[in-house]
Amino acid sequence: MPPRDPLTPQILLELYRHGYFVMADPPGRGQQALRVYRPDPRAVLPLIPGGLHVPRTVDRLVRRGRFRLTSDRAFREVMAACAEIRPDRGGAEASWISDEMIDAYTALHEAGHAHSIEAWLAGEDGREALMGGIYGVSIGAAFFAESMFCRPIAGGSGASSVCLVVLVEHLRRCGYQILDVQIVNPHTRRFGAVEFSGRRFAVLLDRAVRSADRWRPLA
User: Fold this and answer.
1) Which of 17, 81, 96, 109 is the most exposed place for a label (fewest CB within 10 A)?
2) 205 CB contacts (<8 Å, ≥6 apart)?
3) What is the CATH number of domain 9-209?
């Protein structure tokens, strides 16, 4: 059932603490309805050394340093870009990220519980443009990755994958215990996502969200 109350940072935090996340129905007439989900099994990316599988093409991009990586410099822009209809999917897939969600998660970001990693690339005029990014929710030692994007036509091919690799390494250094990616799909499987039963995930989550906040800016 869609939540009855307006989406607020407090509601979001309560949902995530109990393993739920929010998605909006496809756009139609009027406001998009919001729904909450808690899949079983639940997909996570392991934060142990060697748990992340980095494809060779992505590893080369990381090592080359093609993009300048930042954190929390453009949270709303990253989320809005994730909400755009993606040309790489034929432009047919409607976004599950509504305007109400962007407002609520931006407020959550301003409260210190939602974060983004951004990839920037300088053009011939020296000005940097946002080429890709990833965002998610942070509570204690748990990070809930939500969505990511890249702009390959503008020169940002692979930028979102680079952001994911950097995020995993950053969370590991910060001492996070869980990186939730919701469900296993071809993309998350490519990076080594594994499934936990709903019960096991709930136990690990309860411990992680009770920990002190682990986030710190990307060095």
Assistant:
1) 17
2) 17, 19, 142, 178, 180
3) 3.40.630.70
